[in-house]
Write a structure and sequence with these properties.
Layout (H helix, E strand, L loop, with lengths): L6 E2 L2 H4 L9 E12 L4 E8 L2 E8 L13 E10 L6 E10 L5 H34 L1
Parallel strand pairs: 1-2, 4-6
Antiparallel strand pairs: 2-3, 2-5, 3-4, 5-6
């Protein structure tokens, strides 16, 4: 069975506690730390004058050539981590995307969410109409 499609989450949402163990996610941030001996990296993002950190398990993407200070996008699954506040992402893909416009990426993520919400409400409305049509 294939894993669920990974949804983009902002870094400040990853550690919110709303995500469950094993859930597929995509997120982004600036690589601020890499510990190859522990297969652990840290992505950091500024939002609303607060710095948000996402801990990344890099064991499935090693060896890789980390560029400290560069922007990265990670695709992986949420896992509970001992000794880490909150959760960490077990990376399946960790790509350097230095030079990407983060403000534009955030806007695109919000637009995508809006589209999915609109499509879902449209599908639910159509299902209700179908049920009314067959029930009468």
């Amino acid at each position: 069975m294939l894993p669920a499609v990974a949804v983009y989450y902002f870094p400040w949402e990853v550690n919110s506690g709303a995500l469950q163990d094993g859930e597929s996610v995509r997120t982004f941030g600036r690589l601020t730390q890499y510990e190859p001996e522990k297969s652990r990296a840290s992505l950091t993002t500024q939002h609303a004058s607060k710095e948000h950190h996402v801990v990344i398990n890099t064991s499935f993407v090693e060896p890789f050539n980390p560029i400290i200070g560069a922007q990265y996008i990670v695709l992986g699954e949420i896992e509970t981590a001992q000794g880490v506040d909150g959760v960490r992402v077990c990376a399946r893909v960790l790509n350097c995307v230095d030079g990407v416009n983060i403000a534009l990426l955030q806007k695109v993520i919000n637009e995508q969410r809006s589209f999915f919400r609109e499509r879902q409400s449209h599908l639910e409305g159509a299902a209700v109409q179908d049920a009314d049509a067959t029930g009468s």
